[in-house]
User: What shape does this take?
Amino acid sequence: MNTAETKRPPLAVVILAAGLGTRMKSDVPKVLHEVCGRPMLSYVIDAALSVSPDRVVVVTGPDQEAIVEILPVGCERAVQQQRRGTGDAVRAGVEPLQGFEGDIMVLYGDVPLVDGDFVAALHQRHLDADAAATLTTIDLDDPEHYGRIVRDDDGRVARIVEYRDATPEEREIDEINVGLYVFRGDALRPALGRLESDNDQGELYLTDAVHLLIDAGHTVASFESVDEEMCMGVNSRVELAVVNAAMRWRLLERLMLAGVTVEDPETTYVDYGVEVGRDTLIRAGTHLLGRTTVGAASEVGPGSFLRDAFVGDRARVISSHLYECVISSGCNVGPFAYIRPNTVLAEGAKAGTFVEIKNSRIGERSKVPHLSYVGDAIVGVDSNIAAGNITANYDGYDKHATQIGDRVRTGSDTTIVAPVTIGDDAFTAAGSVITRDVPEGALGVAREQQKNIEGYAGRRASRRLREQQD
Ligand code: UD1
Ligand code: CA
Assistant: This one.
């Protein structure tokens, strides 16, 4: 810790997350709606944690256990019994902070693009201004529904007026309240006690604390931001889409700067936490979601969809869907493969065109090149599963396992009725329905013998001629 940090007053952060999010038209709490695969609240918590606060309190509604589940260790929960507005929410948030002496930063859980640097700059501004409160503001070309900052003749913040309570002249103001503040705890508490609900919504507004503080003779400072993106609040699904696009671009930019080629960022979707190695090429129309990792010098796409997938180095995944699977280095997947959970392709293996694999391991350098279904199977090394093979793993009641050894060559259109084992170096004949084990080195044949009916074509032609003459 440096000296500036050791000298700063203790800092608590209160994050407001109890709102119903009415404008989202959703049964899910607003702050749990996802931005790049992660609840928006988690980004705000990250930003808060990055300034090393002494306490973090997240305010939720009484019925929002789902929010509690995503809180990191060390974050406390405060319950706002009734949604009576942002001021009431802060009252609930400072409840567990009785006896805490220091600064209280208040962040809104629906402003997810804010980052640690931004929050640190706000905090620093507050410390420098030595104010009772510091609020973040920004000038917007189209300030929409945001609360407006009313300044006095000397240009000092006088109060915040909500859009719905504002006069037409006040609505002309383009400086808005972002919803990120720092208060001195001993100034905030009495102001919270004096909030009243004499406004259009009949709520207790935190924003009223500003003029109450000024009336009480305190100084209120502003932290004037120019970064519109950081300040974007999410109140509707339209705004959610805009915020997602901004976050997605941030994540793509980070990947590109780390040495990943993104062919078409406009159509590439990456979730928070996805990792990609250098010199990998991500082609157009690709989704890398959940806890997906792609190694170095690989190629993914065009049109691939990966969720919770691990892909190694020098692998290719062309126009395929992958879920909860491991694709080792040097593997080839697709085009048009569907790799389902608990599948492992060992190094150099292949899952080719129109191939579905589930809960199976395909050994080193083994290939499933065309039109096959492999489920609940273990395939050894250097084996080749020919076109159109099916592991018939389901008898209508239970799933059964298939074992295929090393250096096996199955014939095209083999149906392997599990449970069954095909030994090392064995073959199966094309079109076989294998119901019994095939020993090591053997050829399994299980199909009708072919018989040829001589002279058939001639007899067929003369019969047709006769029919036409009749
Ligand atoms: C609020 C501000 C507005 C500002 C805007 C910035 C107030 C009165 N208005 O308006 O000046 O321009 O944010 O984005 O503060 N919440 C609770 N309990 C409640 C109500 C809200 O926890 O009873 C939480 C919500 O979950 C949300 C945050 O507080 O995270 C803000 O509430 P919201 O209703 O979205 O306020 P805005 O109308 O956007
Ligand atoms: Ca809001």
Remarks:
- The chain has ten helices and 39 strands.
- The longest strand covers residues 175-184.
